[in-house]
Amino acid sequence: MSEFQPGFAARHAAATHLLQQAFAPTPADFAPVAIGASKGRPKSFHPADPAHKATGGWNLLDPDQPTTDFLDPVQAAHAAGFAEGQAAAAVAAEEERARDRRLLTDLVDALGAAGRVDRDRIARQLRQTVMLLVAKLVGETGVSADLLAARVATATDLLADAAESAMLRLHPADVALLEGRLPDTVFPIGDAAVARGAFVLESASTVVEDGPELWLEQMAAAIERAAVPE
Predict the structure, then answer these.
(1) Euclidean distance between CA atoms 153 and 166, whole angstroms
(2) In principle, which of 57, 117, 182, 193 could form an S-S bond with 186, CB 3.0–4.6 Å?
(3) Contact 152, 199 (CB under 8 A)
(4) Residues 198 and 214 sit within 8 Å (Cβ to Cβ)
(5) What whole-number distance in Å separates Cα of residue 201 and Cα of residue 158?
(6) Count of CB atoms situated within 10 Å of the CB of 142
(7) How many Cβ atoms sit within 10 Å of the Cβ of residue 177?
(8) 43-92 pLDDT, tens digit each
(9) Conformational region of residue 201, where left means phi above 0, alpha means psi within -120 to 50, and beta covers everything else
(10) What is the value of pTM for the model shown?
(11) How far is Cα 96 from Cα 93, in angstroms, rounded to an integer?
(12) Which sign does the torsion angle of CA 63, 65, 69, 72 carry?
């Protein structure tokens, strides 16, 4: 047991070594300098332009201090792109307006040119439409006994001699409609060749015809003579 050594011996030896280093003689290449006796500042602390104050007029502690000297590259790029987009949109809009004006001008010129409008074709189409409507109307109206009797009386007045006898040829179905409505000098005769609503009044000196087909022919002739409006 006489050879036992405490475990803290190594630490006591380390402390002794550190104290010896701290109070050892000063090396030859080290020169102590008193505080405040420095020969000058490092070069990194010298401003490039001592007369210019970069923060002149700024309050660095004010969060609302405007930074007019700072240019945000993102904001500048956004403003430039917006201005470029506006310019492109204005050019596109002007091109569309010019195109619309050209189209309207061409349309007006086409409508104003008489040579480009087929007036004869339009006239034929109008006439065919009118004749089709009138023919359909006449066919759907049917035969009225009163109107047929009045038309026969008018035709009788056209005879050269109202006192002479006349033969009235009409459709067999229309003969019954005129029973008791004709003058004594007019004698009805059924003729299947005569269309419904039409008749032929024949006397020794005069022949009078009337009917829907004649009306349509007269109307067609009138339409053919009518000019198409300008």
Answers:
(1) 12
(2) 182
(3) yes
(4) yes
(5) 10
(6) 8
(7) 19
(8) 556 666 777 766 666 666 776 666 555 667 888 888 888 889 899 999 98
(9) beta
(10) 0.41
(11) 5
(12) positive
Question: How far is 144 from 212, CA to CA, in rounded Å?
Answer: 13
CATH of 121-225, one of 3.30.2320, 2.60.40, 3.30.40, 2.40.128: 3.30.2320
| C-beta separation of 203 from 169 below 8 A | no
CA–CA gap between residue 215 and residue 223 (Å, rounded): 12
Given a cut of 70, is residue 36 above it in pLDDT?
A: no
| Region 191-217 average pLDDT | 87
What is the token pair recorded at 168?
Answer: 């009235």
3-state secondary structure labels for all residues of the chain: CCCCCCCCHHHHHHHHHHHHHHCCCCCCCCCCCCCCCCCCCCHHHCCCCCCCCCCCCCCCCCCCCCCCCCCCHHHHHHHHHHHHHHHHHHHHHHHHHHHHHHHHHHHHHHHHCHHHCCHHHHHHHHHHHHHHHHHHHHHHHCCCHHHHHHHHHHHHHCCCCCCCCEEEEECHHHHHHHCCCCCCCEEEEECCCCCCCCEEEEECCCEEEECHHHHHHHHHHHHHHCCCCC
Q: Judge whether 205 and 160 are in contact, CB under 8 Å.
A: yes
List the domain boundaries for the chain.
121-225
